[in-house]
Amino acid sequence: MGDGLMAARSEPPVPGPEGDLRQRFEELAASRDDDVRRALLKPLTALPVKGNNMKTACARSTVLAMLAATAAAGPSARSQEAKAAPSGPVHVMVTPTDVQWADGPGSLSPGAKFAVIEGDPKNAALFTMRLKLPASYRIPAHWHPADEHVTVLSGTFHMGMGDKLDATKGKALGVGSFAVMPAKVQHYAWTNEETIIQLHGMGPWGVNYVNPADDPRKK
Ligand SMILES: [Cu+2]
Q1: Quick one: which of 71, 106, 118, 125 is 20 to 30 A from 18 by CA?
Q2: Is residue 90 in a domain?
């Protein structure tokens, strides 16, 4: 019965339910769109089959089987293409000795060192960086365009909220401490000993000083 159906494709339309099935299959075969295939498949199942018309019933079941196979092949073929695509997440595994420190960043006053260990703070994506701050280091009141997430890895990082650094306020964050400074909220920080923090957030990242005179990029 499969041969008969395929041969019928070059013949003129056959009237009646069987002709309908052939015409639908032609439309379906011409379509590369999964949604069109499904739309065609749906009304096809609703076609009436007379109990004693075995030829129509056979043609119908064959078309349905072919439709099901075609519909099933589309998405799975596509997902295999996706699996074969070369681009994908790049893994990151960094040990403390892997970290390559550099002087900076330019948004902080001299003496700090930094290392970007994931992403690029300039991009609109997640990034992670580390800051190594010497003892008695000051970061005057500032804010960021996105939430700042701070994890203290060594030393003690002191953080306070407000528009002016006040070392009599704030909180001492020891090793293992974590802080989140919401976007645009003014805060400040300082150290009394060498301190390493890990900072992560969504780029593009930036430091905006409450008092422009505190900005080392403007000096
Ligand atoms: Cu900050």
Answers
A1: 71
A2: no
Report CA(69)–ligand 1 centroid distance (Å).
57
Distance 142 CA to ligand 1 centre (A): 6
Q: Are residues 74 and 109 in the same domain?
A: no
User: What global pTM score does this model have?
Assistant: 0.61
pLDDT at 111: 98
- For ligand 1, the distance from its centroid to the CA atom of residue 127, given in whole angstroms, is 15
> CA 44 to CA 26: how far, in whole Å?
13
DSSP letters, 105-145, are: -TTS-TT-EEEEEES-TTSSSEEEEEEEE-TT-EEEEEE-S
Distance 148 CA to ligand 1 centre (A): 6
Share of the chain above pLDDT 70, in %: 60
Residue 63 Cα, ligand 1 centroid: separation in angstroms?
A: 65
Q: How would residue 83 be classed by pLDDT, with cut points 50, 70 and 90? A: low
One domain, residues 115 and 78: no
